[in-house]
Amino acid sequence: MQQQLANILAEATAAAPAIAARPDFEAFKARVAGPNGTLTAAMKSMAAVPKADKPAAGKLLNQTKGELEKLFAATLARVEQNEIAARLGPPIDPSLPSPDDEAGSLHPLTQVREEVCGVFRKLGFTVADGPEIETEWFCFDALNTPASHPARDMQDTLFFPAATRCPDAPKHASEAYLLRSHTSSVQIRTMLKQPPPVRIVAPGRCFRRDTADATHSANFHQIEGLWADKNVTLRDLKSILDFFVREMFGSSAQIRLRPSFFPFTEPSFEMDLKSPNLGRLSDRWLEIMGCGLVNPKVFENVGIDPAQWTGLAFGVGLERIAMLLHGIDDIRHFYANDLRFLRQFASAV
Ligand code: DAH
Fold it and tell me: Whose CA is closest to atom 2 on ligand 1?
């Protein structure tokens, strides 16, 4: 019996490596474990083993069976691999050049976003992020924007239906979810996570019901900036923005701060840009961003002591910058995915 089992295992082990296809495997398995198989015969011959030897013989039989099962499984796995390889055909070399004539490239808005973030990185800013679906508190209340403010109006802000009022915001139970109308909400999210000093830029998608002309879109992008620290002044704001504009538009670009109003900054400004290199928009003042010094109310709303901390903030439309840089006159080009438009930016990276 012992010899018989050893022979069965040895023969099967010797035969297995040559088996490559499924019919061979089936035949191989049948020769051992089929009705007329060698292992089946060995099992039948157990009946003839003297009673005293049965436990040892049974144990050996089970061991051999286990070994053979492992051998079948490994052989079948190899057969299956062969089948998959045959279906896939010859291996692909991903390092070969693409059959298309051009490599892909980054979207112009992505390129400009990275450029802007790169400029602020040089000034020690890091990049922060926040959700596109916001609650009223993050987008408005915390930013000192009262319920009566026109920005909250249904005309501008895209609200979710009343049924989706935020159940998990017990402090502000009557809040609604909305698509953020600006990236200023990331100021709040950042300061709640990380007390000052904070220096961040937050690029992101914003939404407004605002499609009045070719320079507006219901879906657009902004980059928000926040620097909260001790003794941040208007001079810091002006010099940062000056640096930003010169890096983006060249050293002959100039800026001007014009008094304005935003609930979250005091004082607030519109920043205008003038540059000789902007085609037909050259040499005139163009409004490009809102900015100001962080309103102490905003600090209070996130539990930061306004007696100790000061800050500056700004928000700029990414499309606006990209349109000025590249002389694009219709914002919809950015979203149409027309390759004739996109290919013009392929070499810019
Ligand atoms: N959130 C403003 C908007 O969407 C832009 C803005 C203005 C952001 C002034 C600021 C700021 O951080 O200080 O129009």
Answer: 315
